[in-house]
Write a structure and sequence with these properties.
The complex is a heterodimer of chains A (467) and B (287).
Chain A: E1 3-9, H1 15-24, H2 28-39, E2 50-57, E3 61-68, H3 74-88, E4 99-102, H4 104-114, H5 126-140, H6 146-165, H7 175-186, E5 194-198, H8 202-213, E6 218-223, H9 226-236, H10 239-242, E7 245-249, H11 253-256, E8 262-265, H12 276-285, E9 291-295, E10 312-316, H13 317-356, H14 359-377, H15 384-411, H16 417-426, H17 442-454, H18 459-466
Parallel strand pairs in A: 5-6, 5-8, 6-7, 8-9, 9-10
Antiparallel strand pairs in A: 1-3, 1-4, 2-3
Helix pairs in contact in A: 4-6, 4-13, 5-6, 6-13, 7-8, 13-15, 13-17, 14-15, 14-17
Chain B: H1 6-25, H2 29-57, H3 65-87, H4 90-109, H5 123-162, H6 175-182, H7 188-221, H8 229-251, H9 256-279
Classes of the chains: A alpha/beta (467), B mainly alpha (287).
Chain lengths: 467, 287
């Protein structure tokens, strides 16, 4: 019944190691295959160690989120970690690349990840979508269950609270966003503007995508190898985005400059692609209309002197980076408040999870009381329907207060012995319940108790919604 | 209204404008609507004062220095409200309303003296004089707007050029902060476009106004050749705006240089108006 998270991220492993893990669980098929192997891990008594599983994989992290079987103890968690480490790496000491969190720490970690507190760029919004994908996939592979359902929903809820109640996401920090925002300071509307993208870098792609999102319809892409540019467009952009893009010969980009309003440069060239003397005549041809140049390549591809030309505005990656730095500071300040929210939610989750420990005891106790009542009342009441009604009513009345106390005891660690005392007092044995012939839909009762404990009766409908 | 003098009436919209800025300075989003409502209320009251006074006194009532200043404030406000509606640029309203308020205050302190034009102008010339004043004031209001827009342009262009104090993302979400701290809506293209619109509309009005002024001067002094300081400054102003318009249309001049031209042109207008109305009325050519 323990929550276990084993994984590696940008904080624990370098990009090379992360790539090795990521490649082996890159596709859903690969992930399903590995998940099956994990779920088949058994203890010495040939009992499965893992009840529920979800695999989260992003460019910066790979994590395995598990709900362990009740009989799995600390030793088994290390066994699972060794197995995961051995699956991905042949080298010795690779288990040091992986971190491991159990129960409260695991919940706190997942909530922090979902709230983007553990991300490379704090507050970035993509991570929550990636966690939702991981959860959906777990549902699809039927690897989820009551505990992971609750854990993930609590993570989504926590992430939402963090985003709305703190300023962690109020100041965007991506280069592409900054480029678009800067453009809006120069141009009134981006819809009628022409953008020239020089090079086919990742950053250029993201920025071009962001410009399209902001209404740009004309983007020209020029690369030294035209085929590479065509392939880049084919691979990187959706159908609608492709309608806004034209690939041109690299030799022709200069002819396009007088008609271009924004130039995005991300080539791998070692020298300047655009020089001061190139831009001077262009500005005259443009009749002094403003020209915005964004140089996101390292080393720089646009001559910095160009910024001195009237109506030309040049920003390189450092200039944009400085603007983003301020926002990162804001986010780091907000992270403290966000961590408190994460901790509160993790505590709430653990309370709910601990309350589950009481459910089997409650079920057994109810059954015991019902059995006694049934035997005694059968002597006086013949009609089954009437008898069952009375039995249920009396059981509820007798056990209302004890059940409340049992639930409290399950949550409160200082009263951990109460459950054991109760079992001894009433001779409740988890293993013998079914053997004694009780066929009273115990699962239904367990589910009802769990729902009461979680206070979340819409859990199942929420799962369907996310699916 | 009849219990109040014209000067006291000017103080009603003046205090409304001043009061409205208190709501803006509270920096609470819910108060921004109160600010806007008060500004528009002030404008409506200004308009009511204008039309009621016009109804009571007729056009001859306009021939007092304080009334001309009040009229100027009203025209500026019309231009600002129209620009605000067309361009959705809230900063225009925020920046120009104080100028309107100052104009109203000047109107209160300006001499409430009627200029007796009946004795010096024929009926036809009186109409020409009135049109001259209205055209010049509308043109000047547009140039005043262009002046403010140009100042904002130069300030914002500098921030973008030197890459300092340029807040991109600080979402405080209140118009006061958006305008003064983030420069939201201050895109250079829109500022330049508004500047050009002011010039395109204002220049013909000023041209006709100056032509009428020259005609009136001829009518009054019986000669085109009497050169007065106001005429020199007016012609110099006209020349600056003519060059600016020509450069914009023919050579596509825009941006910082165009903004500087607008600023210089307006400073000349201010000097000519100050000289002619407040400091040396004889500067205009009449006492």
């Amino acid at each position: 019944m323990d929550i276990l998270i084993i994984g590696l991220s940008h904080k624990s492993a370098d990009i090379g190691d992360r790539e090795i893990v990521s490649k082996k669980i890159l596709t859903p098929e690969l992930r399903q295959e590995f998940a099956k192997k994990l779920l088949n891990l058994k203890d010495e008594g040939d009992r499965p160690l893992i009840k529920e599983l979800a695999i989260l994989t992003t460019c910066n992290r790979s994590e395995f989120i598990m709900d362990l079987s009740p009989w799995a103890v600390g030793k088994e968690a290390h066994f699972i970690k060794d197995y995961i480490s051995g699956y991905f790496f042949a080298k010795k000491g690779a288990d040091n690349l992986f971190y491991m969190y159990l129960n409260f720490e695991a919940a706190k970690h997942l909530f922090s990840v979902a709230s983007s507190l553990d991300s490379m760029v704090i507050g970035e919004p993509q991570i929550l979508g990636q966690i939702k994908d991981a959860y959906n996939e777990s549902c699809e592979f039927r690897m989820n269950g009551q505990v992971l359902n609750k854990l993930f929903h609590k993570a989504f809820y926590c992430a939402k609270r963090v985003r709305t109640e703190t300023k962690i996401a109020s100041s965007p920090v991506s280069i592409s966003y900054a480029a678009v925002e800067l453009s809006k300071k120069i141009f009134n509307s981006l819809g009628d503007k022409k953008i020239l993208l020089l090079g086919t870098g990742e950053m250029g792609k993201l920025t071009a995508k962001h410009f399209i999102k902001n209404g740009v319809h004309n983007i020209y892409i020029a690369n030294r190898t035209k085929e590479k540019a065509c392939h880049f467009v084919e691979e990187s952009f959706g159908v609608n985005e492709k309608n806004c893009i034209d690939v041109i010969d690299f030799s022709e980009y200069y002819k396009l400059l007088p008609h271009t309003d924004i130039v995005l440069c991300s080539t791998g060239s070692e020298g300047y692609v655009l020089r001061y003397d190139d831009i001077m005549p262009v500005i005259k041809l443009r009749k002094q209309r403003p020209l915005f140049l964004i140089d996101i390549s390292v080393p720089r591809n646009i001559d910095p002197e160009i910024n001195k030309i009237s109506n030309v505005y040049l920003y390189d990656i450092d200039d944009i980076g400085k603007m983003i730095e301020g926002n990162l500071e804001i986010r780091k300040k907000e992270a403290g408040t966000a961590s408190e929210l994460v901790e509160i939610n993790a505590k709430e989750f653990m309370e709910w999870k601990n309350s589950l420990n009481a459910v089997p005891v409650i079920v057994l106790l109810r059954n015991k009381v019902k059995d006694i009542l049934e035997i005694e009342l059968s002597k006086y009441i013949g009609e089954k329907k009437e008898k069952d009604l009375i039995i249920n009513s009396l059981t509820n009345k007798i056990l209302h207060e004890p059940i409340t106390l049992i639930k409290k005891a399950a949550v409160d660690s200082s009263e951990a012995n109460m459950l054991e005392t109760l079992k001894t007092l009433f001779n409740l044995d988890l293993g013998t319940d079914k053997e004694n012939g009780h066929k009273r839909n115990n699962d239904n009762i367990i589910n009802k108790e769990c729902e009461k404990g979680s206070g979340d009766k819409n859990n199942l409908s929420k799962i369907k919604l996310i699916k | 209204m009849i219990f109040m003098t014209a000067g006291e009436l000017y103080l009603i919209p003046f205090f409304i404008y001043v009061f409205s800025y208190m709501f803006l300075l509270l920096r609470k989003k819910r108060f921004y609507q109160v600010f806007i409502s008060l500004i528009y209320s002030g404008f409506i009251i200004q308009s009511l004062i204008f039309f009621i006074w016009l109804n009571l006194r007729g056009f001859k009532g306009m021939m007092s220095v304080d009334w001309i200043v009040f009229f100027n404030a009203w025209i500026i406000m019309i231009v600002v409200v129209l620009f605000n509606l067309f361009y959705k640029a809230k900063y225009i309203l925020i920046y120009i309303t104080p100028i309107v308020a100052i104009n109203l205050l000047l109107g209160f302190f300006a001499p409430h003296v009627y200029i007796n034009i009946k004795s010096i102008f024929s009926n036809f010339d009186q109409a020409i004089l009135l049109t001259h004043i209205i055209l010049i004031l509308i043109g000047d209001s547009l140039f005043a707007l262009a002046f403010i827009i140009s100042l904002i342009y130069i300030f914002q262009e500098r921030r973008i050029k030197i890459k300092k104090n340029l807040k991109l993302f600080d979402k405080k979400n209140h118009p006061f902060d958006e305008v003064f701290y983030q420069g939201k809506g201050y895109n250079l293209e829109l500022l330049d476009s508004m500047n050009y619109q002011c010039l395109k509309i204002g220049f013909p009005l000023i041209t006709i106004g100056i032509a009428m002024g020259i005609y009136l001067s001829n009518s009054l002094f019986k000669s085109f050749m009497i050169v007065k300081p106001i005429e020199i400054i007016s012609l110099a102003t006209w020349l600056i705006y003519a060059v600016l318009l020509h450069e914009r249309v023919a050579k596509g001049l825009r941006g910082k240089k165009a903004a500087v031209f607008s600023i210089v042109g307006f400073l000349l207008i201010i000097s000519s108006l100050s000289f002619s109305f407040y400091l040396f009325p004889e500067f205009h050519g009449f006492k």
